[in-house]
Design brief:
single chain; about 425 residues; alpha/beta; 4-stranded antiparallel β-sheet; binds alpha-D-glucopyranose
Length: about 425
């Protein structure tokens, strides 16, 4: 079996699940200016230490987070175990810069795993390849290190092997100490213009010792699926080993989905925020996407053969922002009666209709109607191809009947939506069984 077939088999559950919760949480919730605050404001390790001393999320209750994810219809979650600031939300044996050494004294990752697993939600770990706290990660001249322009670091030597050993050991403890882990979400590879010709010019691929890393991971957790941000090319005929199992477009919807050089589908997952920030920030209500927006993006991902991982950024007390809760609960109400049109679905061979989108699962075609339009509801090219039509939400029969003004469109099928018209203005779903 080639790498392509292997990857398809490996990602079967993931491509069925379609919908996940991203969780960005850590010390940066205290300054509340997003997870890049150290880099954007060039904050030194010393000045950032105050947040380590202060961190005490007294209301952290991951069971509530897990219940929200479940209610929203999410099948997996991905929590930042360590973000670019280097703070570990887990009890790592390789550093003191960890949640168990803060006032809260808790292994936040352990509690997250237990709570989400109890809700039957698959477990993902985000792990930053970048570490602005570690002395052996490049500082001066790096593209985004908080000390990138600080002359005091200009001649500092970094023992890169030391950092690689640290990083690989932490991945090993994450994949050893917390039971079955379903997803590893690395972030991210990049190039350093100012470090051309040095070992830090290309922070990707073998700079991370990715081959050795992947082999270790596959040994510890054979079923784990890995994103593509170690830097490999997932679209080759024989995808790079370190290109992982899925591509991870960020805050940008792929035009047609993701395919490789041979035009074959590549597993992909759109990751995006609910409110323009990953880490907690003082968001205004208008920063948030609408519930309709979130539903339409989830449907668009699935209609293009992909997943959607949407983010919440809990605050310093451990609470998910109330607007995020509101939106995810409303998405969950829609999912409760329409999830058959999401889980296990993917692309349809039909062209995108004017009134919305199609998702498909074998013989079951789902019409997502965003725009009621006028007259009998026309399904282009489907005359004689439909066994029956039902309103997915309540299972009620929808007659397949051609109206008098449909006589000029013999190839098209018509569904009588009845006087009630659209039931859910955001997205009314028809379940169409194909002959
Ligand atoms: C970008 C951001 C990082 C965030 C990630 C989520 O890489 O730099 O902060 O965690 O996107 O995809």
């Amino acid at each position: 079996m080639g790498r392509y077939e292997e990857r398809q088999k490996h990602t079967e559950w993931f491509r069925q699940a379609r919908f996940g919760m991203f969780i960005h949480w850590g010390l940066y919730a205290i300054p509340a200016r997003g997870e890049w605050v150290r880099s954007h404001e060039k904050i030194s390790v010393e000045d950032y230490q105050q947040y380590f001393e202060e961190f005490n999320p007294v209301r952290y209750n991951p069971r509530e987070w897990a219940k929200l994810a479940k209610e929203a219809g999410m099948k997996y979650a991905v929590l930042t175990t360590k973000h670019h600031d280097g703070f570990c939300l887990f009890d790592s044996a390789y550093t003191d810069y960890k949640s168990t050494n803060t006032k809260c004294g808790r292994d936040l990752v352990k509690e997250y795993v237990e709570a989400f697993r109890a809700e039957g939600i698959k477990i993902g770990f985000y792990y930053s390849l970048i570490d602005w706290h570690h002395p052996d990660f490049p500082h001066y001249g790096d593209r985004q290190h908080p000390m990138r322009d600080n002359e005091a670091y200009k001649d500092v030597q970094h023992n890169w092997d030391n950092y690689i050993t640290y990083f690989h050991n932490q991945v090993k403890e994450l994949l050893t100490n917390y039971g079955k882990i379903d997803i590893m979400w690395f972030d991210f590879s990049y190039d350093n213009e100012r470090l051309k010709g040095t070992q830090f010019e290309h922070m990707s691929g073998e700079t991370w010792h990715s081959r050795e890393l992947i082999e270790m991971m596959r040994q510890l957790q054979p079923d784990i699926i890995i994103d593509n941000r170690l830097g490999g090319d997932a679209r080759k005929e024989e995808p790079d080993l370190h290109s992982g199992d899925f591509v991870s477009p960020e805050c940008m919807m792929p035009a047609e989905g993701e395919t490789d050089v041979l035009g074959r589908d590549v597993p992909w997952e759109l990751c995006l925020t609910l409110n323009e920030n990953w880490g907690y920030a003082k968001n205004k209500p208008w920063d948030y996407k609408t519930t309709e927006n979130v539903i339409h993006m989830l449907v668009e991902c699935v209609s293009k053969g992909g997943n959607m991982l949407i983010n919440v950024g809990p605050n310093a007390k451990g609470d998910i922002p109330r607007d995020s809760i509101r939106i995810l609960k409303e998405v969950g109400e829609w999912m409760r009666v329409n999830s058959d049109s999401i889980y296990g679905c993917g692309k349809s061979s039909l062209p995108k209709p004017e009134w919305g989108r199609y998702t498909q699962n074998g013989k079951m075609l789902y019409a997502h109607i965003y725009d009621r339009r006028v007259g009998g509801f026309r399904l282009e090219g489907l005359e004689g191809k439909l066994k029956k039509a039902r309103l997915l939400e309540d299972g009620s029969e929808l007659p397949l009947s051609r109206p008098w003004n449909g006589e000029n469109y013999p190839d098209d099928a018509y569904v009588d939506l009845g006087v009630a018209g659209l039931y859910d203005e955001r997205d009314t779903v028809l379940e169409l069984e194909l002959i």
